[in-house]
Amino acid sequence: MGGFNLQELMSKAKSQYETLQKKMQETVVEASSGGGTVTAKMDGRKQLLSLRIDPEAVKSGDVEMLQDLVLAAVNEASRKVDAQMQSTLGGMLGGLGL
To answer: How confident is the chain (98 residues) per 10-residue block, as mean pLDDT?
Structure first.
């Protein structure tokens, strides 16, 4: 019988999971807002690695605008991580024969 080998499938799934974990650690995205006024760098686990704010933005004294720019940059970085991980995961699931 050309049967379904559950053990082999589980082994592949575990390997793919470990590969995904490594990919999440290695993935780094960067997003900016306000024409580069605020730049956020995030890894594949959505941990914020750095946040850079142009000193000129602070001098303006517009705290609400700066807060909005920080939120926009962080949220865009998060979207980039999602897109990259979805692409990676889609390719990996295809490798499982699903």
So the answer is: 75 84 88 97 95 92 94 97 85 59
Q: CB 2: neighbour CB atoms within 10 A?
A: 4
Q: Which residues of 30-68 are buried (b: 16+ CB within 10 A; e: fewer)?
A: ebbbbeebbbbbbbbeeeeeeeebbeebeeeeeeeebee
The number of folded domains in the chain is 1
* Cα angle 64, 77, 96; round to 5: 155
User: Could you tell me if residue 22 is inside a domain?
Assistant: no
Domain of residue 58 covers 27-88
The Cα–Cα gap between 94 and 55 comes to 46
Predicted TM-score of the model (pTM): 0.74
- What single DSSP character describes residue 37? T
Give a yes or no: residue 84 inside a domain: yes
Confirm if 42 and 78 have CB atoms less than 8 A apart: yes
